[in-house]
């Protein structure tokens, strides 16, 4: 029986095949290789003393359904930038998250911040797509990819000058990410197989992540207390979606989160 992650990745493979018919893989690669190499500014932005905030633009999710009915995504991204976000994560998965490449490209044309293309990477083609649309980083999920795929995709990212947020959920996946050479490791507090959330996951797994890596806490961070917890556990950055998407005053909410992080001190070295 397929779980939700299996369904999403199966659909992602169909999307890739359809996209390859529009722009053949070799043509897309040539376009990307003729572009200026990226400066890996997503990683650079996360390498600072204070906790970094990756603010997410998303209309819906499999666990919550539609989060933002009207979804003025350009205004949301602009508000994040003015509020002092360090990076922006933008969903491009269309079926469960109601995202699109157009949404990403529209936001990219307006904001100057480093942007993560948040999608379910199942083929190297998607990394070239991300580069071509102006992404500074892609998401690689350990529960979806085997070790050789992660290693290969990280090499492609390096060649293109973009970063990869390598997402993990347990110690085994962290080991896989580290051995593949990941520089940015995310610990997802949400189990992608049943979408249950346990914020203590980020605390429990911190010790398994080498100090050389940037550690990002993902999902389930909703209150100032949650920010304080993951910061105290040693998170260098946090990715926040729903809590900011639902906030009427996103600027104020992000300021509150930043204050909670600052109360826990500087970077945990």
Describe what this molecule looks like in 3D.
The protein is of the alpha/beta class and 269 residues long. 43% of the residues lie in helices and 16% in strands. The protein contains twelve helices and ten strands. It has helices at residues 4-22, 25-33, 41-46, 73-83, 101-108, 125-132, 147-160, 171-180, 200-204, 224-233, 242-245, 250-262, and strands at 52-57, 60-61, 65-66, 87-91, 115-118, 137-141, 163-168, 184-188, 214-218, 237-240. An eight-stranded parallel barrel has the order 1-4-5-6-7-8-9-10, surrounded by six helices. The chain has a two-stranded antiparallel sheet with strand order 2-3. Helix 6 (125-132) links the parallel strand 5 and strand 6. Helix 4 runs parallel beside helix 12 (250-262). The longest helix is centred in the N-terminal third of the chain and has 19 residues, at 4-22. The termini are far apart. 45% of the residues are buried.
Binned strand content: 15-25%
Mean pLDDT equals: 92
First-to-last CA distance: 43 Å
Helix percentage: 40-55%
The unreliable regions are none
**Structural class based on helices, strands and sheet pairing:** alpha/beta
Strand order of the largest sheet: 1-4-5-6-7-8-9-10
Oligomeric organization of the protein chains: single chain
Major beta sheet, specifics? 8 strands, parallel, barrel
Shape: globular
Radius of gyration: 17 Å
Helix and strand sequence: HHHEEEHEHEHEHEHEHEHEHH
Give a count of the beta strands, DSSP E runs of length 2 or more.
10
Count of helical regions:
12
